[in-house]
Amino acid sequence: MSAPGPALPVLSTERLTVRFDGKAVLKDVSLEIPFGQVVSIIGPAGSGKTTLLRSFNRMNELMPGAKTAGTVRFQGVDLYAADIDPAEVRRRIGMVFQKATLFPKSVFDNVAFGLRAKGVEGDLHDLVEEALTVVGLWSGGAEVLDARALDLTAGEQRRLSIARALALKPDCLLLDEPTAALDPAASAKVESIIHALRHECTIVLATSDHTQAGRLSDLTAYLDSGRLMEYGATQELFTNPRNERTESYLTGRLP
Amino acid sequence: MSESRGARAGVAIRGPIGAMGVAAALVTMAALILLAGVLLVEAREVLDWRFFLNPPSRVAAEGGVGPALAGSLWLTLIVAAIAVPLGVGTAVYLAEYAPPTRLVKAVESVLTNLAGVPSVVYGIAGLALFVRGLGLGPSILAGALTLTALTVPLVVVNCRKALQAVPDEFRWAAFGLGASRWQVVRDQVLPAAAPDIVAGCCAALLRAVGAAAPLLMLGAVSFTTFAPGSPHDPLTALPTQIFAWAARPQEGFLALAAGASVALLLLMAAMHLVLFANRRRRKGTLT
Amino acid sequence: MTATALSRAARNPRSPGERFGKHVLFICAALSAVLGAAVIVVVALETFRFFGQVSPARFFGGLTWAPLAEEPGFGVLPLMAGTAQIAAGATFLALPVGLLTAVFLRYYAGGRTASILNAVVTLLAFVPAVVYGYFALNYVTPAIRSVWPGVEGFNGISACLVVGLMILPTIVLLSREALGAVPNSLLEEGVALGATRRRVLVRLVVPAAAIGIAGSVVMAAARAVGETMIVTLAAGNPTGPTWNPVEGVRTLTTFLAQASLGDIPTGSIEYGACFAVAAVLFLLTCGMHAAGGALMARGQRGKPGAVRS
Question: Can you tell me the ipTM of this complex?
């Protein structure tokens, strides 16, 4: 058991192409997500941000008609190899969906679901409370645990869905539009959670708000019509984009 | 009101649709009240405890639905025991597990279409398959198997609808947390779809219990003197008993037919109550 | 922890439910498929055997149906005509009442009224056909004859009326589903533009749901085609073909029901005829059911939220 070193990228894709019913949504995408970084994927609607994110933890295969070509590696291991268990992949590479679909159960049950599915036995309270603490939903009162998840506010629901993924202590966290449809105050809270999380795990986030990418991420990738147009340090990409489409997008002139 | 006549012709209507809707709704309600009223008034003379125990008789006044009621209970139990697990299992497999191959799609569309085939066709198929093919004769078991063949596609169609009503985001959320397919199905999808699955199974079973035509095709008897004690006893059931009495013009048999109808409706109501014990009903499911 | 721990082999085999679930469900599906296939195959086989004795041309082209006569006729057309007569009559009667009830339920009825009406419609859907048949023969027919003495004891009018009542819930519930696919915003926008509510309903909403409503009508008609007990009890089974609704009517289903009352020897020509008639019924109802389902599915397309991202 060797510790994952910073030398090996946590995630990497090589000529990744994803088709839905024959239509290519991602085309020949090759990129590396280095260890311990926050990486943003930006791009216009329909550019393939979500599909790229979902290909990192094998969620695309759940959609009928999806075909993946090329390779995706996690710490050097081919994620799409025959003997890989997708459930285990999704535990190691957690995901928070754009639409926080909470289970119609208590807050505790929502957070404990992944742990139970993994087969963790015994008292889960410590693990659940730990995850809730990270997202600021735990203040010591047990009543939070028994609250119905669907009674929470939109911002709390989003944070709960982050906690649900964190409870499994993933190596990498995929966030799809983490602040979509949240009011500014709730968005700020979620952003500060993401900011704090960068010490815990590698983070990949897809966002259509490029200012958010600027605020949060070390690296930024610009996707356009399924192609990776540009990828580099956020600062560099924002101030001095090499690709003219990246520039048009960032300045709001994209047709 | 004269303007509302245009409704039929599809010409511009300015007449009060609301009033016409009320009228239509009243017609619908009146039909049910009339039906229930007629049955109760007609059956009031025969409905006593003896009626539910006695066998049918040539003398109308002494007739009862004992054997037919017992037959219907047998049929209900056997059909429920086979068709519900089979149908629900099939629906879950098709909705959650099956790869989208041609064979699977063919099975799906065959079962969907079978749900629309009239019950009398199952009767004639059951006659060839079970009564004569397997040599079961016109027995309770042959009737139950025939009704099972009729019920399974209904259960499958109703349960598929219930499962499809569970949004995919729900499944993704569970998969995303590392749940296996079985965990997703058992812990999230089935609990979410449960009320509709129960309603769907209930609707299918009620259809089976009320079916007369298939049992008639199998050769159900309506003048047996003893209640069936095993699945191999002669087939007799409430719907065919009603048919036998309803067609007899003699005085007294009308009341018996009404009484048997009330017995059948009571049995159906009881099934409904059993299936929905502790569960609030969400909405009517029909197919 | 290394990524090799991702392999299936590395996982402890803790959940026996995993494979058990999948296998049991597969077996259920296989059994259901076999049961359905058995029904189809047995009807098809016996029908083909019948066509060995009676040519399909005689069956589909003949104009008399008299399997037990000395010179037997095996023309199915008269039976199909009778079926069409009952199904068309019942659908014609049920459509206006059903559609209006659906519109009323969706756009006019308030919470309490709607739930009562909903319960009534659902209850009507569960009344067994044989109970409807009893009602038709012993109450509806006498009522018709009291106002129109020329009507016979067994007649098509009574059958149409009561079959119409039986398919009414199908039309109401499925049409309401079709209306549900029309976004509420259509009504709101129309009203906001100054049109009256009923004008918007008639001009915009119902036409927008027309395909789905048509689907519900086809589904209901398919049920009417297959209805056996009501027609057998109310319309009887006269020997000759008849076009007069005041007389009895003979349909595909009444032939089967009447044939079952006598004992038909396996392999006889009448036995084969039963299967051929059942096959016609099967294809007819399957076709209508599939067409109705396709129409209803098309009607659902405009539904808000139907588009998947």
Answer: 0.89
